[in-house]
Write a structure and sequence with these properties.
The chain has 556 residues and is α/β, with parallel strands linked by helices. It is built from 21 helices and 15 strands. It is 56% helix and 19% strand. Helix 7 packs antiparallel against helix 15 and helix 11 packs antiparallel against helix 12.
Length: 556
């Protein structure tokens, strides 16, 4: 619910602070006083696009700004994805703030966090429903009508059961369509896949170590150089007269002589012997390596061909051996699926057939409950419209059966006719002008138990209605306000008398410039305002007595 609205430098409102009742709030004042300015300010802070020239107070140095403070008692609303990110567990309020500069740059915040206009608008859509002569509200959107009827019918658990089965069903349908589409070019696709599978198979990538292959290629390609280098190393280590092995032998003999005279050198002698043994092992391994060095031209050609083949495969199928292997696995699966497409289609068809009776049963129960609820909604709305002086109104919930969908088989839309002899038409097409607010009021009254939006605003709801109907309208608004916060602009004292909080709007002049002022009134001020609304600016005794009587009758 809207707790407080703060407005600065917005159109004619230089500065205003309004605190609202949780029930019925009414704005009254002369035509042109600026009642619609407040509604525009609410639209602005809820994310509606407005030109800076339209909202900025002329000559004001500061930006136009509006701040709205909402209390969110509904757990469902607090947990909505569009809202939840802005609330911590200890937050009691959601504070929306928006401002626009003279250069038309607009900024917005939700609980002090900057947001863009679209995010602000999404949050606003959840918080406030504004009904004016030219508004297109959620109720006018046919896409919401089935959801509304399901809420009224209490179809939540049934929809969940149906939805679970439908998701499995639609998944099988999609899988079958994929296979059927593949069947169109089946032979051509299978030929291509077979060629690709064979091409990769011939390359022998299964178990291949690319690094080992590269090392073998390098050894074969450089066999002569390797032989030359190994011979040179052996010469230095063992074969030359001054080789390392001969030098180590000589050093060992001399150390043995030293040990005879100085036993403390025994450890050094053993270290030298161990180093000599290690050198001999190196020489042996190098000799083995040298003997293994042979150039096999056939093996070299085979490896060269395999490497070229691998490079080609990598260019064609992903850039690496791992990517080629992944492609190979997927190609084999696709080939198998195409080869067995008819079998898969048959299996899917059997599963779909087994699921259809239960799906039809659940969809049928949904349709019956909707039909029953639609009849109740029709009677309720037509009765409400008769009370609102649209006695020949005809409301219908038109439903057509189609294929299975996420919510059943029903394609549903609200239709209405407001005049005898005229067939019902789509709700969004038929209501206009002064009738719009009354129709919305009747529908809101009928749907109040399931409508999740906490704040309702009615602008000029009293268009084209008289005093007697004003009392009926006021009473209905009062009933709605017992469950939803209501804010309305009215010219009828009969409606205004039902307010829990009454704001008077008037235009004032300061230094030759017009400004709008908003003031909460009660007691005698309120009686005077209602009396003036009945008799014009001149307050008469009769009008005053009537105003007092209206206030008395409006109390529960």
């Amino acid at each position: 619910m809207l707790i407080r609205l703060s407005v600065q430098n917005f159109a004619l409102a230089e500065k205003a602070l309004l605190e609202f009742s949780p029930e019925l709030n009414v704005l009254t004042g002369e035509t042109g006083a600026g009642k619609s300015v407040l509604i525009d300010a609410i639209r602005f802070v809820l994310g509606e696009r407005m030109e800076a020239s339209r909202v900025l107070v002329s000559g004001s140095p500061g930006p136009a700004s509006v701040e709205a403070v909402f209390e969110l008692p509904s757990k469902k609303l607090r947990s909505h994805p569009a809202v939840a990110d802005f609330l911590s567990p200890e937050d009691e309020f959601l504070i929306l703030r928006r401002e626009v500069q003279a250069d038309s740059k607009s900024r917005a915040w939700v609980n002090s966090r900057a947001v863009n206009q679209s995010a602000l608008k999404e949050i606003g859509r959840l918080l406030v429903d504004i009904h004016g002569q030219y508004d297109h509200q959620r109720l006018l959107d046919p896409a919401t009508h089935l959801e509304i009827l399901d809420l009224l019918a209490g179809n939540g658990n049934l929809l969940e059961e149906y939805g679970k089965l439908y998701r499995e069903y639609s998944g099988l349908l999609a899988r079958r369509r994929e296979i059927e589409l593949e069947e169109t070019g089946r032979e051509r696709e299978m030929d291509l896949l077979k060629y690709q599978i064979n091409e990769i198979t011939r390359a022998g990538i299964d178990g291949l170590d690319e690094e080992e292959l590269a090392a073998e290629y390098s050894r074969l390609a450089n066999a002569e150089k390797l032989k030359e280098f190994s011979e040179s190393a052996l010469l230095s280590l063992n074969d030359a007269e001054d080789s390392a092995s001969n030098l180590f032998s000589k050093a060992g003999r001399e150390l043995s002589s030293l040990v005879r005279f100085d036993p403390s050198l025994e450890g050094l002698k053993k270290d030298c012997e161990e180093a000599h043994y290690a050198l001999e092992e190196i020489i042996r391994r190098l000799q083995d390596y040298q003997e293994s060095l042979t150039f096999d031209p056939e093996r070299f050609a085979e490896i060269e061909k395999q490497r070229d083949c691998l490079e080609l495969l990598k260019r064609k199928y992903g850039g690496s051996i791992e990517a080629v292997r992944e492609f190979f696995d997927e190609a084999r699966k696709s080939y198998e699926r195409l080869a067995n497409g008819a079998v898969y289609i048959k299996d899917i068809g059997a599963k779909l057939k087994s699921m259809t009776p239960e799906l039809e049963k659940l969809a049928g129960v949904l349709s019956e409950k909707r039909k029953k609820t639609g009849g109740m909604l029709k009677r309720t709305i037509e009765e409400e419209l008769r009370d609102l002086n649209i006695p020949e109104a005809c409301f219908e919930c038109r439903s057509e059966a189609g294929d299975f969908g996420p919510s059943g088989r029903d394609r549903l839309e609200f239709f209405i006719s407001l005049n005898p002899g005229h067939p019902p038409q789509e709700l969004g097409e038929i209501i206009s002008g002064g009738e719009a607010s009354r129709v919305m009021l009747a529908i809101k009254k009928a749907l109040i138990a399931v409508d999740p939006v906490p704040v309702l605003i009615f602008d000029e709801i009293d268009a084209n209605i008289g005093g007697r109907l004003g009392t009926v309208t006021g009473r209905k608004l009062k009933e709605i306000a017992g469950k939803r916060q209501v804010l309305l602009v009215t010219h009828l004292p009969q409606i205004a008398s039902f307010a829990d909080r009454h704001f008077k709007v008037k235009k004032a002049l300061r230094q030759g410039r017009a400004f709008t002022e908003y003031k909460g009134i009660e007691g005698d001020e309120r009686v005077r305002e209602l009396a003036q609304m009945m008799s014009g600016q001149k307050e008469t005794d009769i009008a005053r007595r009537h105003a007092e009587e209206m206030l008395t009758r409006s109390r529960p």
